[in-house]
Amino acid sequence: MHDFAQNQIWCAIVALACDLTAWMQTLALTGHPGHEQARRWEPKRLRHRLFSIPARAARTGRRRLLHLAATAPFTALVLAALDALARLTAPPPRAATG
């Protein structure tokens, strides 16, 4: 019985990862010149092109940084996608009071 519960949790985590990947593609990989089809890439192609870019994690002070390899062919696309996601999560600008 214990093994079945662990498998259920594992399947839920995998399903959540698939959903997050699909939403990331839909929201962040649209409208990039030269990569118009990136939004429709299959998981294997997405993993090969975007999720395998060499990177180094660094911590400085209270910030955590991810340094992507500048020579990787899809680094610009990843950076543009991260910027698009950051714009979606940014708080709306406040109205000026006068």
Please give a handful of descriptors for the protein shown.
alpha+beta, 3 helices
Radius of gyration: 18 Å
Number of strands: 2
**Distance between the ends:** 65 Å
Following the backbone from N to C, one meets helices and strands in this order, namely HHEEH
Instruction: Bin the helical content.
Output: 40-55%
Strand content: 5-15%
Largest sheet: 2 strands, antiparallel
- The stretches of 5 or more residues where confidence is low (pLDDT under 50) are none
Strand order of the largest sheet: 1-2
Number of helices: 3
Q: What gross morphology would you assign?
A: extended
Find the structural class using helix and strand composition: alpha+beta
Average pLDDT rating: 90
Description:
By secondary structure, this protein is of the alpha+beta class. The protein has helices spanning 2-28, 43-49, 75-89, and strands at 55-60, 63-68. The protein starts with a helix and ends in a 9-residue tail after the last helix.
List the helices and strands and how they pair.
Elements (H helix, E strand, L loop, with lengths): L1 H27 L14 H7 L5 E6 L2 E6 L6 H15 L9
Antiparallel strand pairs: 1-2
Give the structure's gist in a few sentences:
The protein is an alpha+beta fold. 50% of the residues lie in helices and 12% in strands. The model has no long low-confidence stretch (mean pLDDT 90).
